[in-house]
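Sequence, please.
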């Protein structure tokens, strides 16, 4: 069985309501199309403008130039750079001045903001598509998915409700053809927000998760304390203990400033990354998501395994650690087996995590002794959360 046959055979028919105004707008502008359709719209007689010089812009440059397509410029609202990826960076006013000779390919996760601006400028019809995730394009090929088809089938079988199964199917479809409609169809609307306008995932508010007044939370990838503040607000301050793990220096400064003002001995911060073992590793710090790196870097951090904290009695573990989730789970093997905490794992940083995380956790807990749910939250392929509830 290949990946396309698997997807077709396992459609659940589950759909979230697509009657949201912003989603309808994307459809009316013809922007809910596949990557291949976007490529077919590129007019060689027009100057191609990429809008967004972040990671999405870099991925688009690599993909397009490999196909012999060279952008004219990169436009960005906020960047102060003069050039990026070998191309001149211009401001939105440049688009107005050259509107009769350009096409615009949106290459940022913040495409709603770009579309709103283009509408205000009367330029929205110049947009030919959205290439926001091409920094990982190579890993989305059907050959890669076909090679893991048995694992994909096993992971799919672990999911405990129809919504989870359709999230799984739709995200795989997106990885294959790049049409944003797939993840918008299963964006979590339980909170009542538009999937395009809403803020990043409210980690602890899924309807599948029940919190008690005795929770001991390990927040791995605590950032500046943002999700901890969500947790405190949601529980109305009724919890037993919180330990945040965060190695990023800038985030730690903000976290500690906030924490000092709380005067709450139940909350503490550990200045470590979470990993499979205690070690010193390379670390790349940036405002889009700092991460452990195997490449040579001037920055290093201390990382630690969660099993080192077995005596803390964690009842709930959240992990959003920019691709190190599977390694960190290996470092929490004894904790997961003995304490059986609830798990909230961000499952989008690596394509294979959609199934590898499920399979590894099931191997520790027993597939019939835990419930597994996927929820997708937001306006891009990111913010996919795996909830594991041991029984």
């Amino acid at each position: 069985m290949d990946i396309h046959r698997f997807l077709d055979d396992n459609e659940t028919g589950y759909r979230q309501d697509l009657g949201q105004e912003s989603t309808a707008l994307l459809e009316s502008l013809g922007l809910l199309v596949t990557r291949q359709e976007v490529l077919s719209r590129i007019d060689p007689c027009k100057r191609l403008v990429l809008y967004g010089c972040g990671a999405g812009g870099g991925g688009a440059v690599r993909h397009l130039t490999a196909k012999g397509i060279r952008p004219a410029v990169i436009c960005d609202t906020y960047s102060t750079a003069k050039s990026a990826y070998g191309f001149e960076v211009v401001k939105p006013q440049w688009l107005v001045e050259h509107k009769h000779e350009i096409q615009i390919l949106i290459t940022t996760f913040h495409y709603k903001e770009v579309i709103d601006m283009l509408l205000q400028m009367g330029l929205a019809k110049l947009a030919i598509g959205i290439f926001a995730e091409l920094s990982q394009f190579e890993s989305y090929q059907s050959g890669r998915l076909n090679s893991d088809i048995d694992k994909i089938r096993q992971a799919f079988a672990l999911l405990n409700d129809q919504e989870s199964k359709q999230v799984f199917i739709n995200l795989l479809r997106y990885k294959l053809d790049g049409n944003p409609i797939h993840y918008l169809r299963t964006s979590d609307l339980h909170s009542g927000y538009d999937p395009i306008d809403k803020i990043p995932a409210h980690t602890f508010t899924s309807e599948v998760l029940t919190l008690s007044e005795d929770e001991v939370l390990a927040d791995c990838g605590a950032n500046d304390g943002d999700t901890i503040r969500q947790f405190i607000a949601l529980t109305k301050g009724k919890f037993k203990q919180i330990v945040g793990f965060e190695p990023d220096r800038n985030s730690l400064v903000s976290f500690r400033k906030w924490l000092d003002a709380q005067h709450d001995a139940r909350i503490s911060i550990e200045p470590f990354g979470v990993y499979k073992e205690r070690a010193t590793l390379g670390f790349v710090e940036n405002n889009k998501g700092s991460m452990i790196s195997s490449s040579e870097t001037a920055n290093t951090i201390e990382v630690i395994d969660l099993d080192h904290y077995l005596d803390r009695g964690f009842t709930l573990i959240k992990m959003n650690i920019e691709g190190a989730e599977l390694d960190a789970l290996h470092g929490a093997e004894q904790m997961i087996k003995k304490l059986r905490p609830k798990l909230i794992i961000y499952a989008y940083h690596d394509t294979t995590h959609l199934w590898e995380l499920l399979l590894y956790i099931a191997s520790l807990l027993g597939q019939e002794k835990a419930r597994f749910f996927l929820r997708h939250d937001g306006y891009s392929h990111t913010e996919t959360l795996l909830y594991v509830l041991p029984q």
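The longest strand covers residues 370-376.
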